[in-house]
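Design job #97: recover the sequence.
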């Protein structure tokens, strides 16, 4: 049976390998065996491999934050799912042909979902959904500003905000990304710069801008904070720059700007099972309705791990990269 692992931290396509491991036997008490259909390469996967994100306690280790699959077998005491059910895998070692996992660590999902979209639904859709809901009581007509707006989270957020009558200001790092965001329904798009706040306020005047969402850190974080209305909240959920988040003392003291951190592990998975299931039920309905989706640029087999990770690490992509261990034989 094939699986992907890494034995040292470093450049992803240099330190990861597709290996052969023993096939899985019968599921242990409380567990199930799942045939993995598709699994995405999330930015957090790459950061784990590079040693810049919470990861395994020891190496070598298996990988894979996001995946879906079909249940092959269940232990005698498992009642939550049955063989043939499609499930979203919540553990983090899913880049494999099959996985053994506790039945409590999956969410049953409908087979009506496109399998590639389903394989990308664990992290980015609930991240956008919860950040838009959990920090500010946004009203129709309010503005939200975000950087990395052409990311999967950014695109989801544009569509979710539009559905609620909330307007978005979307910041990117290159001019070539602007047109795609205009087509996606972004209200305003700017290329990041030192004078961002001046350009934003020139467009929106004194309109209420209470929420900023930062995936980058560093100076980009500071530019977002400069745009916020008094009392605004700046939510950091990523560190693409590798630099610390930045707000000035005047922003914190005089403008009452506050900095918050969002991590799905804390904001969703440490909550109740009921909240987790409710969140993914909402995400499922949004995908089925066509409200949110993520573009896919390429899919690879597990044995193509070096090509896949090199592709996922390149800038300027038009979509996500996924592994499809068992897609053809399941769909």
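Job complete. Output follows.
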């Amino acid at each position: 049976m094939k699986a992907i692992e890494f034995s040292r931290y470093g450049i992803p396509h240099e330190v990861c390998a597709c290996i052969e491991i023993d096939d899985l036997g019968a599921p242990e008490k409380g567990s199930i065996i799942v045939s993995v259909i598709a699994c995405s390469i999330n930015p957090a996967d790459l950061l784990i491999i590079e040693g810049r994100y919470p990861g395994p306690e020891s190496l070598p280790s298996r990988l894979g934050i996001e995946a879906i699959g079909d249940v092959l077998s269940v232990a005698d005491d498992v009642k939550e799912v049955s063989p043939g059910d499609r499930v979203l895998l919540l553990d983090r070692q899913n880049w494999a042909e099959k996985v053994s996992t506790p039945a409590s660590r999956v969410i049953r999902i409908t087979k009506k979902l496109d399998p590639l979209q389903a394989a990308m639904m664990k992290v980015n859709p609930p991240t956008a959904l919860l950040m838009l809901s959990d920090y500010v009581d946004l009203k129709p007509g309010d503005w939200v500003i975000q950087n990395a707006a052409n990311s999967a989270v950014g695109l989801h957020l544009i569509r979710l905000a539009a559905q609620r009558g909330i307007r978005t200001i979307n910041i990117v790092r290159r001019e070539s990304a602007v047109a795609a965001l205009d087509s996606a329904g972004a209200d305003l798009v700017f290329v990041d710069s030192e004078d961002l706040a001046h350009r934003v306020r020139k467009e929106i005047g004194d309109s209420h801008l209470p929420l900023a969402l930062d995936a980058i850190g560093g100076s980009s974080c500071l530019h977002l904070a400069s745009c916020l209305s008094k009392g605004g909240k700046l939510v950091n959920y990523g560190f693409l720059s590798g630099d610390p988040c930045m707000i000035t003392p005047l922003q914190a003291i005089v403008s009452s700007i506050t900095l918050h951190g969002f991590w799905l592990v804390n904001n969703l998975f440490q909550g109740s099972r009921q909240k987790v299931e409710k969140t993914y039920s909402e995400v499922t309905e949004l995908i089925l309705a066509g409200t949110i989706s993520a573009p896919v640029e390429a899919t690879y087999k597990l044995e193509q791990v070096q090509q896949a990770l090199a592709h996922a690490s390149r800038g300027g992509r038009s979509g996500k990269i996924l592994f499809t261990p068992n897609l053809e034989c399941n769909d």
